[in-house]
Amino acid sequence: MTSIPRGTRILMRGNEAVAQAAIDAGCRAFFGYPITPQNQVPDYFARHMPEVGGVFLQAESEVAAINMVYGAAAAGTRVMTASSSPGISLKQEGISYLAQSELPCVVLNIMRGGSGLGNIAPAQADYFQSVKGGGHGDYRTLVLAPWSVQELYNLTREAFDIADRYRNPVLILGDALLGQMMEPITIPEEVVDPARLPRKTWATDGAKDRPRNIINSLYIEEPQLEKVNLRIDARYEEAARKEVRVAEEHLEGARLAVVAYGTAARVAVTAIEEARSGGMRVGLLRPIALYPFPSDEIASLADRVDAILVAELSLGQLVEDVRLVVAGRCPVHLLGRSGGVVITPADMVEALRGLAGEDRG
Amino acid sequence: MSVEPLYHEVLIAGFGGQGIVSAGNLLASAALAEGREVVWAPSYGPEMRGGPVHCTVIVSSERIGSPEVSLADSLLLMDAASMQRFGERIKPTGLMVLNSTLVSARPQTDSLEVLEVPATETAEALGDPRVANVIMLGAFLEARPVVSPESVFEAVQVFAGKAQAGLVDVNREALGRGAALAREVAVRGSFVRGSSVRGS
Predict the structure, then answer these.
(1) Pairing with A279, which of A86, A163, B72, B160 sits 20 to 30 Å away (CA)?
(2) CB contact B146 to A (< 8 Å)
(3) How many domains does one find in chain B?
(4) Is the minimum CB–CB distance between B47 and chain A shorter than 8 Å?
(5) Over the stretch B34-92, which tens digit does the pLDDT of each residue have?
(6) CA A103, CA A70: separation in Å to the nearest integer?
(7) What structural domains does chain A harbor?
(8) Helix ranges restricted to H, chain B
(9) Beta-bridge partner residues of A308
């Protein structure tokens, strides 16, 4: 067990909370390559992984790191990597291989302003990359989007269970602000002992006294590859039934709804509070899982409200998925900022007032 | 544990090495100890000694929504460049605490409360220029007691640890001097509202 105080409120950075959560979830291998604004993650692992006898390794590149993740995952270890937008792009080939090889792992993306090298300010512009696959092929990553330091901890711990359950990479999607800010957090007493986790019977952990296992993503025969892909797809369908997570606030009797995740949802809380104190009936629907997407929840919301405002730190990505499931039931508007610019509560209140006015007209 | 309702957004700015991030840490730790909700956020820029640096701290009795500070209730500015950069990031009736040793400009509006504190000069007189940040904190907390100076002092003790126990006394003195300076300028009438009047 690491030396952190447990069961009491402490101040912690988002990036550090993720690393602590991984260790507490029984993760015993981290491979990464430095990039701002997630550098506190490898820093924390470097200091604390040795306390639990785990492996911290700074690889020579992002590509090397994700392939080390592949190796550790194939051997049955709970394993993680972390990076920030451009670095996550570099890892996509490896993530595709992990998905095709049915290997569980956790990947953290602390998003920064993009595209290209962009900047190191908070953004949500990797939404499409996260929920639509990211690398080549017919796969998905399961995506969780925390909005606080406590939730970064909680969801990272859960991510390891989800990854094992579906034998698939799970992506934690944060941003520069969530990763670097400090908030009060309570770290629970109980931790996972990796030695007591259910044995991964498919892992390549030594074939003495049993038939050998093969971890592979190459299937030359078409029907064989399709069979594997259908097996993987069935898991995504199961995830769609079991892993949808949303949080709702003030939606009862609301005429307007904001749909937002992560930092944009935090801004929405402040904006909605102000709008409601001015008499506006507005609530929040916050997807906590971005894939599987809360399709039914948003479709049903569209039946109840006059209009939806999608707020995102990107120029129209989440809004596409919302419009797809709303399917014309109500107008869906976008409030998007880009390049590391964070939406202000004042921006959002103004957008809501505009919608309320439109509605009256 | 504090119970009275509170929501206060603070922005602290200066240059790398002035203890901007530490000042924010001390404030955030004190708020945590007093049972408050708190968000501490650093500037995103590549940081270096001598380069511009700032951080924000939100202290609240309720859950905190937006972690980003758009307009601060209180602005603590420790050098001339940060006055230029952040002088406008403040609510119309906010409090501006200026390190008057290094900041000569004054705000162009008369709705602000302005507290001029010769923090660097006073820190040097105390024998440790590093405690200018804590002098600023002491002055700020005298004008806006969002946390008690005792809680800040407890945070100082934790931060200093056994290895730097020598820092504890000078920081205690710095907190007290900051508060005294705030009272002094207020009494002398140079706790000005507006731009024209300068402290002595």
Answers:
(1) B72
(2) no
(3) 1
(4) no
(5) 999 999 999 866 667 788 999 999 999 999 999 999 999 999 999 999 999 999 999 99
(6) 7
(7) 9-200+216-242 (3.40.50.970), 246-360 (3.40.50.920)
(8) 20-33, 80-86, 119-125, 132-143, 149-160, 166-188
(9) A257, A332
**What pLDDT is attached to residue B190?**
46
Q: What is the DSSP string of A63-98?
A: HHHHHHHHHHHHTT--EEEEE-HHHHHHHHHHHHHH
Whether the CA torsion A188, B29, A264, A62 is positive or negative: it is negative
Q: Does B66 touch chain A (CB under 8 A)?
A: yes
CATH of the domain at B181: 3.40.920.10
pLDDT, position B195: 38
d(CA B42, nearest CA chain A) in Å = 7
Indicate whether B165 belongs to any domain.
yes
Tokens representing A163 are: 């990854």
Q: pLDDT value at position A151?
A: 98
In the predicted model, residues of chain A with pLDDT beneath 50 are 361
Pairing of strands A9-13, A182-186: antiparallel
Q: Write the pLDDT tens digit of every residue in A215-230.
A: 999 999 999 999 999 9
The span from the CA of B156 to the CA of A68, in Å, is 42
Residue B1 maps to a domain: no
Tell whether B192 is covered by a domain.
no
Q: What type of residue is A254? A: A
Strands A282-287 and A307-312: unpaired
Which pLDDT value is given to residue B67? 98
Reduced to 3 states, what is the DSSP secondary structure of residue A108? Answer: strand
pLDDT at A170: 98
pLDDT value for B196: 36
For residue A3, the model assigns a pLDDT of 79
Q: Which residues of chain B have pLDDT under 70?
A: 1-3, 44-47, 187-200
Burial class of B194 by CB neighbour count within 10 A (0 to 12, 13 to 18, 19+): middle
Which one-letter amino acid corresponds to residue B56? T
**DSSP characters over B99-124:** ETTT-----S-SSSEEEEE-HHHHHH
Chain B touched by A347 (CB under 8 Å)? no
ipTM score of complex: 0.95
Contacts of A47 (CB under 8 A, 6+ apart): none
Question: Where are any strands of DSSP class E within chain A?
Answer: 9-13, 29-32, 55-58, 79-83, 105-111, 142-144, 169-175, 182-186, 246-249, 256-259, 282-287, 289-291, 307-312, 332-336
Q: Is B21 left (phi over 0), alpha (psi -120 to 50) or beta?
A: alpha
Range of the structural domain that residue B141 is part of: 7-187
Query: Is the whole model's pTM more than 0.80, yes or no?
Result: yes
Whether B70 sits inside 8 A of A9 (CB atoms) is no
Euclidean distance between the first and final Cα of chain B, in Å? 39
Of A37, A177, A273, the CB nearest to B65: A273
Residue B29 near chain A (CB below 8 Å):
yes
